[in-house]
Amino acid sequence: MNILGISCFYHDSAACLIKDGHIVAAAQEERFTRKKHDERFPIKAIEYCLKEGGITIDQVDILTFYDKPFLKFERLLETYLSYAPRGLRSFLLAMPVWLKEKLWVPSVIKKEIGYKGKIIFAEHHQSHAASAFYPSPFQEAAILTIDGVGEWATASYGIGKDKGMKIEAEIHFPHSLGLLYSAFTYYTGFKVNSGEYKVMGLAPYGKPIYVGRIYKYLVDLKEDGSFRLNMEYFNYAQGLTMTNNKFHQLFGGPPRKPESKLTQREMDIARSIQDVTEEIMLRLARYVHQQTGQKNLCLAGGVALNCVANGRILREGPFEDIWIQPAAGDAGGALGAALFVWHQELNNARSADGIHDTQCGSYLGPSYTNTEVKHFLDMEGISYRELQDSELFNETAGLLAQQKVIGWFSGRMEFGPRALGNRSIIGDARDPNMQKNMNLKIKFRESFRPFAPSVLAEYAPKYFDIDRPTPYMLLTASVKKKIIPAVTHIDNSARPQTVHAETNPRFHNLLEAFRKKTDCPVIVNTSFNVRGEPIVCTPEDAYRCFMRTDMDYLVLENFLIDKTKQHILQETDNWRSTYELD
Q1: Which of 61, 153, 239, 296 could serve as 170's disulfide partner, Cβ 3.0–4.6 Å?
Q2: Which stretches make up the Carbamoyltransferase domain (predicted)?
Q3: CA 5 to CA 150: how far, in whole Å?
Q4: Distance of alpha carbon 157 from its chain centroid, rounded?
Q5: Of 409, 356, 365, 434, nearest to 539 (Cα)?
Q6: Structure pTM?
Q7: Residue-by-residue DSSP string for 277-301
Q8: 403-430 pLDDT per residue, tens
Q9: All domains of the chain, ordered by start, with CATH?
């Protein structure tokens, strides 16, 4: 039984293939098109999934879509009518794409990929909930989903047990924690649906001086975590911006212009909305625990990527354990929709051992053999050295110990927004200058942005205040040792990835080689891309990024490439620049 899941048309479109209940492949369209957060129909991601599964589109038994377009359109029309005549410009801009494409998903599917079989539409938050529960290690658990908006729901909770899953209650648009956070993302001068990480990273530099103002004027928060937003201060329901003049007056001026200097005011605003978000998520988690009586919690939806709030839920909340979908945003909806059909619609059994998830480390994207890499290098006349595994790990570890910055490309590409050791830029966590240098010379991004540590799982409790695996970088923890300044944020926190030999033996071997040389099992791990560009997918993407930054070395599978031995990259039709530095 082959089930193809699709999410698209808003941001982070993706495809996923489930074969007899097992996740065979999943990838975001952006990785292939090189357009960050690409929302278009995921033709290339579908092509990859079918190729990985060794099937054609005619062998797909069921295709499933991650939300219900007509329900979403109903919400759109009702919202515009309730605000009319305000919002006319936004309405006129939205209608053509809805009437031409977004409403007619079956027609688009048939036209784009020639699929003529059965199509099942899941609800948006059902897809999120399924992506959280079904791959989790729990046989039964509470489920909490929080994002911007699906059809009408902006948050939901429910219970998953065995193969069944039921949504118990929802919060509806326009009252949305995701859109509240995005409004502050917009106001502080960052891009909505991509700059939320920046707000979270900026927050520790500020003081929560606006929290009282947010609760007084913007958010009516109840003890159970439910809330209502005062829509007099927001513009997203009917306009083309997130906030309005009343919001701007409340916080003392217009939104920060993108790329302008950050001031203490933006830092304080970021800290304030982060604190409010954490409080809402904690109250929601406590209420869900009270209502469900479950000891484990599964999280998904874009807000579940707020790793600071997740860390607090784990430490301060009532649940014994939590599991967060690594592709928690809309991309993960493709995976959730496919699993929803397999377990819920087709009634197939599920068993979990309480320890291991079925996400396969989220290594679900394309991989390239040494033969394919060598062909590329030889065709382009690139200088390289081919090394056996033991030589490669030992030599790369030695270069890291010399504070060299290395592009590390190995195995299957990650599914979700985090690089987890297969499409990563890595460095020495002990180097106090590494964070600044990587931000400015490699990533071309704001100097305040923190980097995550990758740590050998068996050593994690010695370096971080954490007592369990965190393989997907979705929890923050306090740093115990002062010897890793490159991954220690200003508030002494870090977002660790525990590296496990069973899910990523090559990355684990590299860290072990580094530990033997330095007595430190921790390195810097950031995604292999520059600002404004998706994470690299192919050897070509990796080499292009390598040559246009100050990285010192590039590892492509078993090939080590030294920057000092490379010719200057010439632009040709085959090497068109894809950089759009926003």
Answers
A1: 153
A2: 3-339
A3: 17
A4: 21
A5: 409
A6: 0.95
A7: HHHHHHHHHHHHHHHH--SEEEEES
A8: 999 999 999 999 999 999 999 999 999 9
A9: 370-575 (3.90.870.20)
